[in-house]
Amino acid sequence: MTKDILSLIQANMSTFSKGQKLIAHFILDSYDKAAFMTASKLGKTVNVSESTVVRFAAELGYDGYPAMQKALQEMIRSKLTSIQRIEVSNDRIGNQDILSMVMQSDIEKIHLTLEETSRADFDQAVNAIVAAQHIYILGVRSAASIASFLGFYFNLIFDNVTVVHSTSTSEVFEQLLRIGPDDVILGVSFPRYSRRTVKAMQFALDRRATTIAITDSQTSPLAPISSLTLLAKSDMASFVDSLVAPLSLVNALIVAIGRKKNEDLSRTFETLEQIWDEYEVYEKAEE
After folding, report:
1. Considering only CA atoms, which of 130, 229, 133, 225 is closest in space to residue 181?
2. Gap between the Cα atoms of 282 and 287, Å rounded
3. Chain-centre distance for alpha carbon 73
4. What is the phi/psi pair of residue 214, to 5°?
5. Residues 6+ apart with CB under 8 A from 192
6. Cis ω before 208 (30° cut-off from 0)
7. DSSP secondary structure of 190-240
């Protein structure tokens, strides 16, 4: 179901029963809160039964309330302001132990990523990166940490890597000026999606480069402009983006590529160990 759920609700408003209209108006007015309510809590909030809420989801064409809730959550992650994120997370956390809740949520996102990531796309991405003439990596704002991590290890494996710095839109395009059909670009973006990353990926696609998106959903604006899409579930913990699952996916990508480049990588690290030792890069552990 690709239509925005809020538009779907508005389009079907005249067909709803009195109780369903109460649900519809609440969601339209407070979708940021409704997205994280159980069917029971949503029903109590608008004074209708839980079964009415479930029937409302079915009326919209969803396979149960959880499917409708998921659609709401995916939509709002790209819409919420930082202030709204704080309000929503405060409602979700309540008096619960923050450490336990945040870490348990991260564990669940890794499980979901493991279930939903396409093994075929993952393998194709590995092969495309290994075969690329030049590899570009782009992530801005909080996604810059993922791009930087990926770039650090790719620079140990390859000699043809550019981590695109994004201090301005013009600089992004200047760094991608020579991208072409034999190249690969990895674009990393999670809600709220970066317009700069989307434009850069479109630029690369127009020049027939292989575009690989690392993002959270097929509804991400990166998905339709990417040759391959690697999905990793993200979440919002207050104003903070939870990128544990994306980092785990990137770890797997690095390990898989390292195995493909095993012989070259062994020689590289043999040289690096000599350099690190000679220039005392690492503190020696006391025996």
Report:
1. 133
2. 15
3. 13
4. -115, 105
5. 77, 78, 79, 80
6. no
7. -SSPPHHHHHHHHHHHHTT-EEEEEES-TTSTTGGG-SEEEE---EEETTE
Calculate the dihedral angle through the C-alpha atoms of 36, 39, 41, 43, rounding to the nearest 10 degrees: 130
61: alpha, beta or left, given left = phi > 0 and alpha = psi -120 to 50? left
Q: pLDDT tens, position by position, for the chain (287 residues)?
A: 445 788 889 889 999 999 999 999 999 888 878 888 899 999 999 999 999 999 999 999 999 999 998 888 777 665 666 566 666 666 666 667 878 878 888 898 899 899 888 999 999 999 999 999 999 999 998 899 999 999 999 999 999 999 998 777 788 999 999 999 999 999 999 887 889 999 999 999 999 999 999 998 888 899 999 999 999 988 654 456 778 999 999 999 999 999 998 888 888 888 888 888 888 888 876 65
Question: Are the CB atoms for 58 and 113 separated by under 8 Å?
Answer: no
Residues 128, 209 contacting (CB under 8 angstroms): no
* Interatomic CA distance for residues 88 and 91, integer angstroms: 5
Which run of H or of E encompasses 253?
helix 244-260
DSSP 72-139: HHHHHTTT--HHHHHHHHHHHHTTS-HHHHHHHHHHHHHHHHHHHS-HHHHHHHHHHHHH-SSEEEEE
> Phi and psi at residue 208, in whole multiples of 5°?
65, 25
